[in-house]
Design a protein that fits this description.
Layout lengths: L16 E3 L6 E3 L4 E7 L2 E9 L31 H4 L7 H8 L21
Antiparallel strand pairs: 1-2, 3-4
Amino acid sequence: MRIHGRARVDPTNPQAFGVCDRCRFLYNLVDLVFQHEWRGNRLINLWLRVCRRCLDIPHEFTRPAILPPDPLPVYQPRPDDAAASEGPAPANLYVQQLVTGQPLPAPPTGLPVPRPIQLAD
């Protein structure tokens, strides 16, 4: 005697059997459906025949977002010169210590001042 899994056997109306590609149970082929997944902006058939228990519903979060195009650029833009009006940027004290060899000023926190890194010649 053959085990039919979850397939229905009807001698008056015979139907083909099929195996679920995920759980490997035997079903009637008409009860198996194709698995779909988001690829790009449309659903693509993965050609997996699965039962209703194993069917994964394609979730919208796996669908890629379609971004609108960038806006058109402004004709002859005039950039703001706020950075130039604020003056030069403050110097990085650690780089200044390496270049000049002068020690860092003592911090007001009382923490020890790190020694300069000795570069190999």
